[in-house]
Design a protein that fits this description.
alpha/beta, TIM Barrel, four-stranded parallel beta sheet, 16 helices, 12 strands, globular, A_deaminase_dom, zinc
Length: about 375
C-alpha cells in the first residue's frame, strides 16, 4: 500500500494521521524528498540511479531491503551528496518540518551529522545554522497552515570517526539556538560507545541529554556501553534489549519472562526505546526473532512495561511515515486508540525538553485523543 493511502487509515473510527504525535528518531538525511534529491542533484553534479522522484523512491526502498545495516547505510551516500550547501540544507530542513506537520506531528526531533556536510566549504557552525534556518521556516509555514509544531536538532557524531568531542562541543554551544540533544550513529557493530567516552564525559559535565544508537546492529554489549559510557537517557532503537529476556513459558496471552540485568535496568528506570519497526525489519535488527512485523519484539516489550516509542528512522529509505508505522502496528498487534496514545505519551515524556514543556505536550496529546 502506498504511503498516502495510510492518510485515511482509521483506528476506532479516528484518522490516525489526524492524531497528535511526537517523533523522536528521525534522520534528516534519511527524510529527503525524492523529488528534491532529483532537483538538487542536477545542480550538484550528482549522478542518480533514477531520474525522477517516483522511480528514485522505488530505488531507495529496494536498495534498503537487504537485511543488513551496513548495506542500508550505503544509500545515505546519495542523500548526503546533495546536502553540501547552505541553501540545500535549509530547503531540506524546511521540507522535513512541513512533512512532519502534514503527518500530524506536534513535536519532533531531527538528528543529523554536521561532519558529513562540509564538502562544500561550510564550517560546522554554518551547517547547524543552515539547518536551524530551515526548521524555523518550516515551523512558520506550518503555523500559517494552521498546524503548531516545534522541532529540535539532535547533533550526531559518526561512531567510526574521531570528531565526537568536537561535535559534543558544538551541540552544547548551540543548546540555546535549537539543539536539544547529542547522538552517535553509523555502523554500530565493532564501534562501542566507549570509544567516545571523552565526548560523553563532556556532555555529562554540561548536563546535556544524550541518546545513543544501540541495540540495532549490535546487542547487549553495545546497549550496556551506551548506558554506562554514554550515560544515555534514551536508546536509539534498542530493540535487541529483547536478547536479555528469557521467555520461560506461554499460556494463552500470559507470558512468563526472566529478565537479565540490562533489560531490568532499562525497564525499571523507564529508559525510552526509540523503536522503528519498518527500519528494524530492513536492517535485520530483529533477525533473531524473524523477518515479519509480527515477529518484532515490540509487543513483548510493550506488554512487559518498557517505555516503547514509535519512530520512522528514515522516511525516504523505508518509504514510511509515523502514521504508517502506527497503522502497521495496530493492524499487526490489534492495538486500539489507548495503545497508540500510550506510545505518544511515552514519546512526549522522553522528549529533550524542560519538564514544563513535556507536560504541555502530554496535555495536547490527551486532548487530541479525547477529541
Amino acid at each position: 500500500m502506498p504511503i498516502d493511502q495510510y492518510g485515511d487509515a482509521r483506528v476506532q473510527g479516528l484518522s490516525v494521521r489526524g492524531l497528535p504525535k511526537v517523533s523522536l528518531h528521525d534522520h534528516l538525511d534519511g527524510a529527503v524528498r525524492p523529488d528534491t534529491i532529483v532537483e538538487l542533484a542536477e545542480d550538484a553534479g550528482v549522478e542518480l540511479p533514477e531520474d525522477n522522484g517516483d522511480a528514485l523512491s522505488d530505488w531507495f526502498a529496494d536498495a534498503c531491503d537487504s537485511g543488513s545495516l551496513p548495506e542500508y547505510l550505503k544509500t545515505f551516500d546519495l542523500t548526503v551528496a546533495v546536502m553540501q550547501t547552505p541553501e540545500a540544507l535549509t530547503r531540506i530542513a524546511r521540507e522535513f518540518v512541513e512533512d512532519l506537520a502534514d503527518d500530524g506531528v506536534i513535536y519532533g526531533e531531527v538528528r543529523w551529522a554536521p561532519e558529513q556536510h562540509l564538502a562544500g566549504g561550510m564550517s560546522l557552525e554554518e551547517v547547524v545554522e543552515a539547518v536551524q534556518e530551515g526548521i524555523e521556516e518550516g515551523e512558520d509555514a506550518a503555523e500559517d497552515a494552521g498546524h503548531d509544531i516545534r522541532v529540535g536538532q539532535i547533533l550526531t557524531a559518526m561512531r567510526h570517526t574521531d570528531r565526537s568531542l568536537e561535535i559534543a562541543h558544538l551541540a552544547v554551544a548551540f543548546r540555546d539556538s535549537g539543539v536539544v540533544g547529542f547522538d552517535i550513529a553509523g555502523a554500530e557493530d565493532g564501534y562501542l560507545p566507549s570509544r567516545h567516552r571523552e565526548a560523553f564525559d563532556y556532555l555529562a559535565e554540561n548536563f546535556f541529554p544524550v541518546t545513543v544508537h544501540a541495540g540495532e546492529a549490535a546487542g547487549l554489549e553495545s546497549i550496556r556501553s551506551a548506558l554506562i559510557d554514554g550515560r544515555a537517557v534514551r536508546l536509539g532503537h534498542g530493540v535487541r534489549i529483547a536478547e536479555d529476556l528469557d521467555v520461560v513459558s506461554r499460556a494463552g496471552e500470559e507470558v512468563t519472562v526472566q529478565f537479565g540485568d540490562v533489560a531490568r535496568w532499562v525497564r525499571d528506570r523507564e529508559i525510552p526505546l526509540e523503536l522503528s519497526p519498518s527500519s528494524n525489519l530492513q536492517t535485520g535488527a530483529i533477525s533473531a526473532w524473524g523477518t515479519q512485523l509480527e515477529d518484532h519484539p515490540f509487543d513483548l516489550l510493550y506488554q512487559l512495561g518498557f517505555s516503547v516509542t514509535v519512530n520512522v528512522d528514515n522516511r525516504t529509505m523505508s518509504r514510511t511515515s509515523l502514521t504508517r508505522e502506527l497503522v502497521l502496528l495496530a493492524q499487526t498487534f490489534d492495538y486500539d486508540l489507548d495503545d497508540l496514545q500510550a506510545f505518544q505519551l511515552n514519546a512526549a515524556a522522553a522528549a529533550f525538553l524542560p519538564v514544563e514543556e513535556r507536560e504541555e505536550l502530554i496535555e495536547l496529546i490527551a486532548e487530541g485523543f479525547e477529541r
